[in-house]
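We now fix the convention by which a protein and its fold are recorded. Here is one such record, which you should read through line by line:

>
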Amino acid sequence: MGESKLAGQFFDAAIGLLQQVRDGDSEEIAAAGAAIAEAVANGNRLFAFGAGHSSLAAQDVVYRAGGFALMNLLAVPGVVGVDVMPATLGSALERVDGLAGAVLDSSPAKAGDVLIIISLSGRNALPVEMAMNARALGLTVIGVTSVAYATETKSRHVSGQYLKDHCDIVLDSRIAIGDAELTHDGIEAPFAPASTVVTSALMQATMAAAAEELVRRGIEPPLLRSGNVDGGHEWNGRVMSEYADRIFYRH
């Protein structure tokens, strides 16, 4: 069987977007990394949140080899992924006013912590309210979103505003509205979304920038190693014990 033309086109589109965010978001990535490093150095905590498929990029930096042991998932019941039944309930919950406030109020997040909020459209009530409430509590908020949505869609938050309007730092994924990179004759709907690839890359680049800043300050980044390499479990046990008061995904 020969090479797929459409598969190649998707790779080209994804690579093009990655180049755009690498070049266009470089200052914001450095600033986000510095904010994370500042929180680590000062004894504060790190949280990441995303709803629906945006949660994939948040989960990608939590409890994984090569990642910061201190990054915690701020989970909102029913919106983390497609495990909720029916799956459409997750999308509906993103539009419920008051949910983000209730989650933040019952979370360990407090002033001085960093919260990364990932929302492709940034238009739903949940991420907007999450950002507003987090900043009111004194958290530093990093938003990862496609700024384009704010120019061509209507906000679903009562304020009429978007995630990008309530962040200290905004990382623009530059994903086109609709999140589908390809079209083809005979296929009525556009397809092949790239937001997960690009957003996860933005997250990992930000964490790399944070590690770089910590080293510049003379601080060892609190990284986890793979449990599938010799010595990995022992390393992780030491890191988790040292930072136990800032890790919330284990008892």
Strands lie at 46-50, 71-73, 114-118, 140-145, 169-172, 182-184, 187-191.
